[in-house]
DUF47 domain-containing protein
Amino acid sequence: MRFRLTPRETSFYDMFAASADNIVTGSKLLMELLGADTPARAEIAERMRAAEHAGDDATHAIFHQLNSSFITPFDREDIYSLASSLDDIMDFMEEAVDLVVLYNVEELPKGVDQQIEVLARAAELTAEAMPHLRTMDNLTEYWIEVNRLENQADQIHRKLLAHLFNGKYDAMDVLKLKQIVDVLEEAADAFEHVANTVETIAVKES
């Protein structure tokens, strides 16, 4: 760890942790969506929308703190990148739930549950990792595992696409379902972006 003579703004750590905890909330709502009927899905979408708004507020708070802080705990561009990637995760999860409701999808294709399970695990790991930004300790396993999960998500996504294009689905249904599984894949990519940013920060601070 580099020795610093000047004090650093430490509230960023708490804000990143809060943002990651909110993502865990979002991932749990995705899990709820799997077994929910149509009326329940609408209610879940409302709660997800509220969580997404909370995520936006957390991101804006980080940006405000960044703009008003003379000394930051690590590079400003990395703070911005980390906050933005965390925000992207919530955006993609909220979009997926919203699409399920808007398209009135009665049954999600087999494999979506695996996508969501991967996202839920990545959310847990991310929330566990954020407090370690204070010391930069015990983070290596985090970014390695999230990258492994993202590779797993890629495989699930490819299998889902093959399933959707096997000729058993109506063309319009294929378009709707593909958009949903693509957005869930983007959420997995965003988790990887967070992990890669954390790795970059840790390397710079070592």
